[in-house]
Amino acid sequence: MELREVRGPGALGGGWRRSLELLYLIGVTEFKRTYFGTALGYLWSLCRPLLLFAVLLAVFTHVVRLGSQVQHYPVLLLLNIVLFGFFQEATSTATGSVVSQEAIVRKTQFPRLVIPLAVVLTSVFNLALNLVVTFAFILSFGVSPMWTWLLFPLLLLALLALTVAVSMILSSLYPRFRDVAIIWAVLATALFYATPVLYPLEKVRGLIGDLIALNPLTPIFELARRWVIDPSAPVEGGALRILVPIALYLVICASAVWIFNREAPRVAEEL
Amino acid sequence: MTLDEPIGTATLTTPSPGRVLQRPVVIEAREVHKTFRIPDRRIDSFKERVTHPLSRVTYRDLHALRGVSFDVHDGEFLGIVGRNGSGKSTLLKIVASIYRADSGRIRMAGRLAPFIELGVGFNPELTSRENVTLNGVLMGLSRHEARRRLDAVLDFAELREFADLKLKNYSSGMMVRLAFAVMVEADADIMLIDEVLAVGDAAFAQKCMDVFRARRRADKTVVLVTHDMATVQSFCDRAMLIHDGEIRFVGDPEETALRYYRLNFGGERDDRLRSGDVPDVNARLVDAWLEDGAGRRVENVEQGESIGLSVIFEARQDLINPVFGFHFRDADGVQVFGFNRTLELDEGEPDVLRAGERVRIAGRIENPLLPGRYFVSSMISRNRSGGDLALHVLRLLDFVVYGTQPGPGSVSVKADVKAVRELAP
User: Fold this and answer.
1) CA gap B21, B270 in Å, rounded
2) Is the domain covering B13-39+72-273 a CATH 1.10.443.10 domain?
3) pLDDT for A13-40, tens place per residue?
4) Which residue of B has its CA nearest to A5?
5) What are the φ/ψ torsions at residue B42 (nearest 5 degrees)?
6) Into how many domains does chain A fold?
7) Residue of chain A whose alpha carbon sits nearest to that of B125
8) Domain range holding A175?
9) Other CB atoms within 10 Å distance of the CB of residue A160
10) Which residues 121-140 of B are in CB contact (within 8 Å) with A?
11) Is a pLDDT exceeding 70 seen at residue A267?
12) Cα separation of B46 and B348, whole Å?
């Protein structure tokens, strides 16, 4: 047997196969844990966005009357809620994930990255099922399939990467600064309104509209609308509106890698 | 540890550092340092940062490990002892890749199964079935392999009927049993065990002992942190004393236990114990062999035939009032019998063996041993009047007693005992 260097805990390491198996096992057990003891079990993960959808639809078609000005507004709203719901659920669950897995973090060696990834994976299960229902609605609403639907997975990948990055940042900072959970709860709610979920971007003018356009989530939602539901939807260009969100997106991903790598070796000591 | 006492009353010991030192190294630690920064006032939130932006946090440095270097050999049973807060657990966590060392280097060969802080990392919300699988993978098994061993783990822990109970409903004793079972069945090359004996009932302690014995027989590596010196003395090939983040002694378990007791109860004798103060080796073994009745060298001995023992030592330094102790032990290290010899002296000759001089200890020994595997270890102490440190313990010879009359225990003795029917009064 050959002597190998012991480098201490880290974000990665220990072999891909083992990491994937751990990811799967922790993902599945988290999933079971979330829905164990609930009467409707897994159905809840479907009901939640649908209930929210029903309420928002009522408000925005009857009270605010935005629905009549946007083509296929109900299904657009549903798609947006499902996508944002995934982002919000994954990131807020991931925040406390390293701490809630304290027992294994303090006692065993494994790539620390597995923990936030497993949480995101659980949310991906939910997202997949929600999307099946969403597309059933979209079709029954009279939107016919188009070739741009094939591009939709690219958007999902972009959203997934951003979700993972934010989850990494939050989960690695949380053991040291417990306020992170509260701050993120507020921030995520703010982000819900600062992302074109309830409304299309073109309905917001002026400074606010410009600010919303800089949000890295905005291009994902705007493109999803165009590629999945309404190819005629206007997309406003401008170098700033393209470059800034992309730059922000890259900065978030890079700092996620940097922060997680820095915190992972010491996280067991902070618990 | 004076050898003046009759040896028959000694504790079970297997002091045999020689058993493993020639084997390849499986854990190699060099100059490992670890310092924890303990804030005098813990800043846990942004608010405290924001409301006191100028108050610099003051830290206290806790030097948990100050340059620790050691080797663990393949198949070795190494004990780590030390008082609470001496750095033992930190060291174990660094070897297990749970903490990262500040500096220094650790290399390791083979798969590791850690048992740290009384557990292997369970999630209380999951059933034991799920936890066992998850932990198996954490310890390096594949998912398939971990599932395959589930039954063995549950059987070992005697928890089969509770397999689908969530762990939060387990008693702490059940939890420890399950954790220990997971580690044992992970079948790793190296076991790292922190204080398993401090908890659990007598039956569990017995089970731990069985595991230790089996690991020893199978020549598997075990690193055991414990406060129980009896365990150290009966299982460990070598033991290491850690104090204030430094290794104070590595070597003979009895010596380590002695020094540990002195650290705990010794008070002012503390400073005598700095490593380097006493050389670990005061004599060199030149040769040791067994002879049969005709004076031929033999490897094994027939049951009932007397044993001819010859040992030659060479002193590495002046040994004043030396005592040569011999212990005959069974395969588990349990002492069967033993004896001590001092130098035969002429009238007026000083009781000193000078450095470089040789001593030959030889003679015939009555053989009451039943068939089985045995070994002889020896211990040389010097300067009986002060200190009485046993400086050198080594495993001399392994041999088998062969014969056709096995019996209970390790020895047969003449017993002039009869069973006679007693007449009614």
Assistant:
1) 29
2) no
3) 767 888 888 888 888 888 777 776 666 7
4) B107
5) -70, 130
6) 1
7) A33
8) 16-263
9) 19
10) 121-126, 130, 133-135, 137-140
11) yes
12) 82
CA distance B131 to B167: 8
Q: Is B264 on the interface with A (CB under 8 A)?
A: no
Among candidates A32, A105, A178 on the partner chain, residue whose Cβ is nearest the Cβ of B44: A178
Interface predicted TM-score (ipTM) of this complex, two decimals? 0.78
| CA angle at B402 for the pair B397 and B407, rounded to the nearest 5° | 110
Query: Does B106 contact chain A (CB < 8 Å)?
Result: yes
> Chain A residues with CB inside 8 Å of B93's CB?
268
Q: Was domain B283-402 assigned CATH 2.70.50.60? A: yes
Residue of B76, B36, B104, B31 whose CA lies nearest to A6: B104
User: Are B130 and A29 an interchain contact pair (Cβ–Cβ within 8 Å)?
Assistant: yes
Contact residues for A160 (Cβ-Cβ < 8 A; gap 6+)? A120, A124
Shortest Cα–Cα distance, A37 to chain B (Å) = 12
Per domain, the residue ranges of chain B are 13-39+72-273, 283-402
pLDDT above 50 (res B64): yes
Verify whether the Cβ–Cβ distance B44 to A183 is below 8 Å: no
In whole angstroms, give the CA distance from residue B45 to residue B183: 37
Contact check, Cβ <8 Å, A106/B95: no
- Give the chain A residue whose CA is nearest to the CA of B142: A18
- Interatomic CA distance for residues B399 and B402, integer angstroms: 10
pTM of the model: 0.70
**Please, which pLDDT band fits residue B352 given cuts at 50, 70 and 90?**
confident
Q: Is residue B24 pLDDT above 70, yes or no?
A: yes
Q: Where are the beta strands (DSSP E) in B88-212?
A: 103-108, 112-115, 190-194
- Is B123–A29 a contact, with Cβ atoms under 8 angstroms apart? yes
Name the interface residues of A facing B (CB cutoff 8 Å): 1-9, 17-18, 21-22, 24-26, 29, 32-33, 101, 103-110, 176-179, 183, 265-266, 268-269
Task: State which amino acid sits at residue B212.
Answer: F
pLDDT at B388 over 60: no
Residues A197, B197: Cα–Cα separation, whole Å: 58
In chain A the first and final C-alpha atoms are separated, in Å, by 34
| Angle (nearest 5°) at CA A210 between A204 and A212 | 75
